[in-house]
Each structure stands twice: as C-alpha cells, then as structure tokens.
Amino acid sequence: MELLVSNSTNICEDFQCKEKVGDILQQMDHSVDSCEDFYQFACGRSTRKTMLSAKMKLLRKTLDNPPNNLQAEHFRRFVKSCVQFQYGFEYGYQEKIEQILSTNIRSNNLTVLLASLMARQTTPFFEVRFDLISTSEGFGLQLLPPSDFYNTAILQNWSIESEMKEYCMSISSITHAESNLKSAYEKYKSCVEKATIREMKDFLFITRNESKRIEHSNKGDDFPLNMKRIPDIDIQFALTNQRYTKTDIASLNKKYSSIDWGVFFNVMFHNKFKQSMPIYLYMQNSYFDDVMAELKNRLTNDEDEVLHKVKQFYQFQFYQSLVVSKPNPENFCIKQAQDLMPEITESIFAAEFHQTLAIDRVKTVFQLLKDKFVRLLTDGIIGMENHTKRYLKARLRNLKLSFFGSDWNNKKDPLPLPGNDYISYLLVSLDARRCLIDQPINPNLTFSQYEYPAVIPNSETVFVSNNFLYRILKDDQNPAYITELYLRFHLSRAIAGFLDEVTGRIDTSFWTEFKDSLRSNLEISEGSRNWNGQQITYNEDPGRWKKLVNASASELLADNLALQIAFDDFSSYAGNDRLPWIANDLTTKQQFFILIAQDYCQPLTLTEMAQKLYESPNIPNVFRVTTMMSNSKDFEATFKCARGSGMNPEEKTEIKTFKPQESFFLISK
After folding, report:
1. Which side of the chain, N or C, has fewer Cβ within a 10 Å radius?
2. In what residue span(s) does the Peptidase M13 N-terminal domain sit (predicted)?
C-alpha cells in the first residue's frame, strides 16, 4: 500500500488503501456525538469481515501439499480423523442419541453415564479439559468444578443451568431503544431464579418425594445449592495460580471410589485414553473432597435416585438435539479445525504471509518499547522508591517474547506444541458437537485468551498469538503506520500488565492510588452511559461494580499507559496533522482514538451486554474502551468534550502517577 506524500498532506491513492478507508468509515456512526458515546461513534456500524473463503483455500492447500512442520501435521491428522468420524456418523450416531433420549434408558453404571455426559462437555459434578498446565508440567488433563467460567474462556458448558439461562436470555431480549440495561438484566435474573429454583432445588441429591427424603447432614440437604455457590473467580484464580494437585488414575480411584476413573476417561476418549497421562486436580480441598464424599453418601443410601437424576440431566441435555447430516464432511471438518485448534490453523495462515519477517518485526518493536518503559520508570514515576525502580527495571529487561510453536523443540518454551493426546481430545469435543451444530461453537479454544499479546502468568513472558501475527501481517490492507500503531499499543498493554503483575507481589504503592480512585469513583458516582442506543445506568449495584473494578483495574491501567506509549510515535508515522484518506474533518489524534476503538469493535445485543456487564468477572471490551477514553486527558482535549458530557464527567482529578506532562490518568470523583 502506498501513500502519496505532498508538502501539505498524505493522500491515499492505492486501491487497497482506499478499501481500508472504506472499512474504517463504514464502522463509524456519524449520527452520534463522539463526546456522548464514543464507542458508538467509532464502532456503531461495525460489521466484522471474515477471511473465511481465503482461509479455506489455504487450508485445503495445506491438506493437499502439507509443509514439513509439526503444526501442519496436527491439522492434517485432525481433519483426516474427523472425516472418518463424519462418514460413520449417520449409521451409528443417530441410534446412540435415540438410546440416550429414550425414557427407557436402563444403564445403572454411574461411571458410564458421567463419561458420556463429559464427552459432551458437562457433568453435574465436574468438568474435564486438556490444556497447558504450566511451563514445567506441559500439557495434561485438568479436573475442575463445573462453572460458567468456561462460557467466556475455554469450554462451552452445556449444562442444565446453561439451558435455563439460554431460555431466560431469549425471553428477556429487549430490543427497543427506550429499554435500559438494568430492566433487561432484572427480567433475565428473575427468570433464571424462578426456573432454576423450580428445576434445580430438588435436583440430583434431593428426592422429590418428601415422605421418602433420606436424612442427611444439613450440609448435604443443601448440596446442590452449595455446588452453585462455588464462585467462578475462585476457579479462575486456581487456574491462574496453578493451585492443583498432580494425581493419577490409581489415586483417584482410591480417594474418590464412587467413580471408576479409568473406565470414565476411556469411555470419554473413545478408548484412546492413556493410563499414564497426568491428571491435575484443581480445588481439591475447597470443592472435590466435599462433592465426592456427598456423592458416595447418597449412592450408599439411595443409588437408584441418584442414577435417575443423572439420567434426567442427560436427557435434558439432548431433548432438543437434531441429527443433521453434513453434505461435505471435509468442509465441515476444516471449519471445526479452525474453531477447535485456532492457534495451529492460524500458524498456517501466518506462515503463508512470511511469518519469520513478522516475528522479527514484533521483536524489534518489543525491545524499543521495553527501553521506553525503562526510561519511564527512571524519569516519570513520582513517589516510588529507588530500590523499587531498580527492581522493576531489572524485571523488565528479563521480559521475553514467545510465539506459539516457533521454538517447540526447546523445553523452555512457555507454550509448547501439544502431543498426540491433544488430537484425541479435540475429536471428543467434535463428537460432542455433532448433534449441537447450531449451538455456540467454543468447546475448546486453546489459548483463545491470547487474542492480543498478553503476559503468561508467572513466566516473565509476553505471548504473541498466531492470530495476532496474521492480523498484522496483512500489510497490503493497512498503511505501515497503522500496523505500527497496533503493534505498539497491544505490546505496550502487555508490558504494562507485566508491571502490574510484578508490583502486585511486592510491597509498593505503584498503582494503588490509581486503583483506589477508580474503585471509589465507580462505587459512589451517579450517571449513565449510552451503548448501541441503550441508556445504561451504572451505579445501581455498587457490590457488582466493586467486583468488576477489582477484576478490570489492571486492564484499564494497561490500556491508558499503552495509549500514552503508542501515541508518542503515531503522529510521526502519520506524517502530519491531517489524513484526508480517512476523513477530512478528523485530526491525527482523533483518528488515533478511532483506530484503537475499532480494533475492539464487536456488536452486542442489549441482553448480551446485560449478562456480561453484571455476571462476568471480566469487563467487556465495549465498556473498557469507553471508560479508557473518558479517563484519558488526551481524549478530552482532542475531542473538546464539554464538562458533563458522556465522555467527560463534570469533575475530574489527576492521579499523580507520572509527571504532569506525562499523566494519562484522569478519574472522576
């Protein structure tokens, strides 16, 4: 892509450049005041274009003429196995589903029932996934409590509770502009409570017939409710902080004898399970010991009742399932490969666009940014002790980059390629989706949390995904300085996140003032925001906001600091203060904020927003970007937003984290 340079301006003449301009302008909604709702202004008409057809051609080419690397071999083996599964689908699987759905199902083997459930991503008692355990342990099986955490992270949890929530989401979907988020959420929550209490309160261990109720401890009588009280954030904390117990089949059988664990995993993995595979048990003391003890107790007292409940659970899962034949098994399997093993398939796309050159480019920018952060620590931080500065600078200099599969022969690679068991697990995930093909497709997105560069916890490593590499490699669709902007912004976010991780473990107030001010602001302030035409009141429940703020403070910090770092060089790449190829009436600074916001563009319905904002421990991108912009000193000055407007609350105070000329933190009181 070329920019014709004149004395006064840069003009886009190249076809690809004009196409990019069209995409940017198409996403913007000029009917909205940027100072009232910047996200809507920048992203209001967002329609994410996909490269599906081009990617399909490239993946087919890889099948026919595979390159000599392990990642391509993983892809080929999965597609080949998937096609074999698919051809036998119509002849054996429909009968199996009919048996499962039959009200006369008479299996009295709890282990087989649970294994069949888990092959479809859920049991009433626990979840299983196959993923990277740690840099030292490599890949293995994880045994965890059932949780909605998987809806936004790794596994799609198709449980009876999820079915209830999906039903309630549909009846609470309010699309009229005059409706607000709070009312949608209240309607949704009321439905969930009524449906869940009716269907779940006496589910699993509580008998329906009060006259036949078995006497147990008080703890046991409330067992289903106790299960539901396990907070998602605890599971996430256990995963992030590697709070697991390494175990094996023999130990599980001895400790939790109600289930034959060898049979369980063998049925689940279609007789492909290796007994030697390591198993990692998470939250053993806080969850599994109590759950398995109660299960054993109930089986001893009334085994038929427990089995009946699990069968009900099983049947409820599939009563709406339809067996749909696929006319082209290979196309189906290639698409499944893209969903189930994205890092491996994205590496194929990235390699086609000169992956080595891109990696070198990212490394160069990464080193420049680290040097910049070192200078910022040296000159810009106020109130930090010198020994803390020296410590942080030393840790920064040791911060490394990692690219998926780029160094898989090196045992020190923090994200090594998985072994053959990975393919077996993906086939299990695929098998679970045959009769649920119209359901959300996210049963196992390995490393999906690394869509953008991110710090791997406890590793001193920033991981750059193949998905991100592929996006920045398409230089023919972006001017060079826009690609550079994305690189600097997202790598800066990762480095800032690393600083936050480090300072969280030492006795320092590096970000304390910022976090405390943000938390105080969101708990006591009154006001609303407008997203996608919906007026959202955000001070109704301070308790929920506190949870959101605690989970998102470091992300917001990283965003603001990354804005500062990235913008320092944006103008020099842009050439001057006006870029007519985007819009004649937008300055360089305005275009900078528009491009950053558009990198996060994602359409959300009102109900989706309600659920994410009130239920998820992770702040949604749409809210994070809006908050980031409203708290940026540069944003306020650039768009000249009047006090009291949506993007410029009436009272602001500067957080003295950096020198005044460097400060990027403006927080409402």
Report:
1. C
2. 35-400
pLDDT in tens, 411-452: 455 455 555 566 666 666 665 554 444 333 333 334 445 678
Of 449, 481, 668, the C-alpha closest to 571 is 481
29-43, 162-176, 448-462: which is most confident? 29-43
Percent of all residues in the chain with a pLDDT value above 90, rounded to a whole number: 4
As a whole number of angstroms, the distance between CA 141 and CA 254 comes to: 18
For the segment 187-205, the average pLDDT, to the nearest whole number, is 55
Amino acid identity of 159? S
Q: How far is CA 597 from the centre of its chain?
A: 18
In DSSP notation, 218-285 reads HHHHTHHHHHHTS-HHHHHHHHHTT-EEEE-HHHHHHHSTTS-HHHHHHHHTTT---TT--EEEESII
Please give the backbone phi and psi of residue 83, each rounded to the nearest 5 degrees, phi first.
-60, -40
**H or E stretch covering 316:** helix 289-318
Residue 555 burial (CB count, 10 A): 19
Which helix (H) or strand (E) segment holds residue 310: the answer is helix 289-318
Q: Using only C-alpha atoms, what is the Rg of the chain?
A: 26
Residue found under tokens 């506190």: 546
DSSP string, 476-505: GGS-HHHHHHHHHHHHHHHHHHHHHHHHTT
Nearest-angstrom CA–CA distance, 345 and 442: 15
pTM: 0.65
217/222 Cα distance (integer angstroms)? 9
Contacts of 593 (CB under 8 A, 6+ apart): 38, 42, 629, 635, 638, 639
Distance of CA 288 to the CA centre of its chain: 25
CA distances from 449 to 128, 135, 153 (A): 18, 17, 7
B/e letters for 625-660, b = 16+ CB within 10 Å, e = fewer, are bbbbbbbbbbbbebbebeeebbbbbeebeebebbee
125-134, 518-527, 578-587: lowest mean pLDDT where?
A: 518-527
Task: Give pLDDT, residue 491.
Answer: 92
The partner residues of 454 in beta bridges, in order of sequence, read 463
Q: Which residue has the higher pLDDT, 120 or 192?
A: 192
| Residue where the block lists tokens 């990464």 | 366
CB atoms inside a 10 Å sphere around CB 102 = 10
Distance, in Å, from the CA atom of 147 to the CA atom of 126, rounded to the nearest integer, reads 8
The angle at the Cα of 407, spanning 367 to 238, to the nearest 5 degrees, equals 85
Place of tokens 């308790």: 543
Q: How many CB atoms lie within 10 A of CB 324?
A: 12
Q: Write the pLDDT tens digit of every residue in 11-65.
A: 566 666 677 777 788 888 888 889 888 888 888 877 555 555 667 777 887 787 7
Q: Where are the alpha helices (DSSP H) in 504-605?
A: 512-524, 542-574, 588-598
Q: What is the rounded distance in angstroms from the CA atom of residue 623 to the CA atom of residue 552? A: 11
Alpha-helix runs per DSSP H in 119-222 = 149-152, 160-171, 181-200, 218-221
Three-state secondary structure of 620-643: CHHHHHHHHHHCCHHHHHHHCCCC
Kindly state the tokens that stand for 40: 């809507």
Rounded to whole angstroms, how far apart are CA atoms 434 and 93? 9
